[in-house]
Amino acid sequence: MSFSEREFISRIRAQSSSVSGGLVTGIGDDCAVFNCIENDQEGKLGLVTTDALVDSIHFDLSWHPAKLLGRKSLSVNISDIAAMGGKPLYALLTVGFPGKDMSGLADDFMAGFYEVLGEHKMALIGGDTVRSKDFFISVTVIGEVAREHIVYRSCAKEGEDIWVSGFLGQAAAGLELCRRGMFKDGENKKIIAAHLDPNPQVALGQVLAESGLVSAMMDVSDGVATDLSHICAESSVGAEIEEDLVPLSSEISETAIRLQCSPLDWALRGGEDYQLLFTAPASNSENMKSLVLQKLGREIFRIGRIVKGKGVQLCRFGEAREVSYGGFDHFAPGP
Amino acid sequence: MSFSEREFISRIRAQSSSVSGGLVTGIGDDCAVFNCIENDQEGKLGLVTTDALVDSIHFDLSWHPAKLLGRKSLSVNISDIAAMGGKPLYALLTVGFPGKDMSGLADDFMAGFYEVLGEHKMALIGGDTVRSKDFFISVTVIGEVAREHIVYRSCAKEGEDIWVSGFLGQAAAGLELCRRGMFKDGENKKIIAAHLDPNPQVALGQVLAESGLVSAMMDVSDGVATDLSHICAESSVGAEIEEDLVPLSSEISETAIRLQCSPLDWALRGGEDYQLLFTAPASNSENMKSLVLQKLGREIFRIGRIVKGKGVQLCRFGEAREVSYGGFDHFAPGP
């Protein structure tokens, strides 16, 4: 019997369907959502999310400074809170340390972790440290969101536009540069930082959620092709990404030429960009764009639209090819 | 520079002292406690705790059936909720799986995990699965407790009695039997179960907390000598354990003779009993004993008293010796 993570999670989810009283939503979205107080019809909802990072699987200490790893381990969890339109409040941190002395690393790691806590006015409220063969990190973040503002993955509707909050593929390009040892020359700082120290989109998530203009939202952690597949599955719709609309930075295009890689591959399948991916009725486009520009001084990018059916198609010159869940099995390299 | 878990946690705690608005207490008790809703003066408090278990460090699959490991990984977290007088509500489960096929193990593990979820009417609301060299489990549990009933570690007062909720050393004796391969003969079932499948004291924790009769409470996870040291440190008091009062089962006494071990050592330093350890004014003793007998049909055991000063002393025939934090450095074997 084969065993994949997705299968494992879907089995867990199937068994988790009978939820207890105060729970609003459990597995299947970026965060679990629960009523803080029974019969509270008005107030705030609690949000909780957890993510683990394992040495040599999710990070490589030969190029990842421990301080930035501390930042990233928290940021990726905060990103899940941002994806619901929420405000992160509390973190729990579990670290597995190998037997050898890692106090220097631990200090640097914690310095980065505390920096991000401070940036979001969060508190570390618990955790555990254990001995292990692997160095691993497991972080849980608890947050809150107003009941009337929360945005789920499951509410995308046919005909809506699909948006992302920034350039895609940056983190994947940064990872590739690090893998090739090209992280010391001071060039490509932005791209490398996208991999080492991603920036969770909390302010934007809140602006979008509070605006009431967006229907579905999540963060881009596994690559937009995969993450959009989740929105489609949860919302029972399909999606078309227009290849020409995928936002690529000039840095990523230059880097792709230099490394002979496909920037589109990075953008669709790379993952770890921690941008927000969201859908909205076409009639909201102008309002949404000007709101984000006015409140945060930034752009957002339309990349396609929600359609009838299921799965994610990449469209170019009127032709479409399936890229659901990253399309690892049958996705030809981009141009 | 040396690096110990306690030092690491105390450093984290020192840095965590500037907490954000809604937090009632962070690191330093069994659970972190936070206000669910700002300015909520009356209602429930949220509780959250996390614990990790690593293969070959915290468990040994050669004698620990995966189903019971699934039960235990959740139970030890529930025990922290019980120790505040709380009700466990939600769990998050992160599992690190080695590359090899572990689907059979994963199914058994989850079956046990779900059993305990069901026993406490809890919901699994999130988690993560990752690849790792070690098989590891990181569980977070969220619960709630009425604001007026919560019991902390930090409120033990001089002159109070110290109580435990059941036999001590059972889990340590069970572990020793397993280590020696003596877990298959069908004997010592209770002791072995205490190690493999501990029973968190949720009902008792709630009865005690709601009674208002207890001052300080925690669960016995690291051995009563260590755990009582935490209560003393948090409450700025000392403690005396009377050796003759330490509750030992007849099974453990027989097992100790058979294995030529000290049952007192198991009881004080063994850990993982997940009984409750609590303090109460002497004037509450009779009320508390009869309440527990009436509500739950069980006994509780007085083992000593809170004194001025600091640290934990073990008293026998009028002589006292220091056993703070298990006294690993200078604790002579018991009789």
Which keywords apply here?
globular, six-stranded mixed sheet, 335 residues, homodimer, disordered C terminus, alpha+beta, 60s Ribosomal Protein L30, Chain: A, Phosphoribosyl-aminoimidazole Synthetase, Chain A, domain 2
In short:
By secondary structure, chain A is an alpha+beta fold. Chain A has helices spanning 5-15, 66-82, 103-119, 170-179, 189-196, 202-211, 224-235, 250-259, 263-269, 285-296; strands at residues 23-25, 32-35, 44-54, 87-97, 123-131, 136-146, 161-164, 216-219, 238-242, 276-280, 301-307, 311-316, 319-322. The first copy, chain A, has two domains: 21-146, 60s Ribosomal Protein L30, Chain: A; 161-322, Phosphoribosyl-aminoimidazole Synthetase, Chain A, domain 2 (Alpha-Beta Complex).
Report strand % of chain A.
25-35%
The CATH architecture assignment of the largest domain in chain A turns out to be Alpha-Beta Complex
User: Gap between N and C termini of chain A, in Å?
Assistant: 37 Å
Shape, per Cα inertia axes of chain A:
globular
Query: Briefly, what CATH class of the largest domain in chain A?
Result: Alpha Beta
How many β strands of chain A by DSSP?
13
Structural class of chain A: alpha+beta
H/E series of chain A, N to C? HEEEHEHEEEHHHEHEHHEHEEE
Q: What is the number of helical segments of chain A per DSSP (H or I, 4+ residues)?
A: 10
Largest sheet of chain A: 7 strands, mixed
Question: Biggest interface, and residues per chain?
Answer: A-B, 68 and 67 residues
**Main β-sheet, spatial strand arrangement of chain A:** 8-10-7-11-9-12-13
Low-confidence stretches of chain A: 18-26, 328-335
CATH topology of the largest domain in chain A: Phosphoribosyl-aminoimidazole Synthetase, Chain A, domain 2
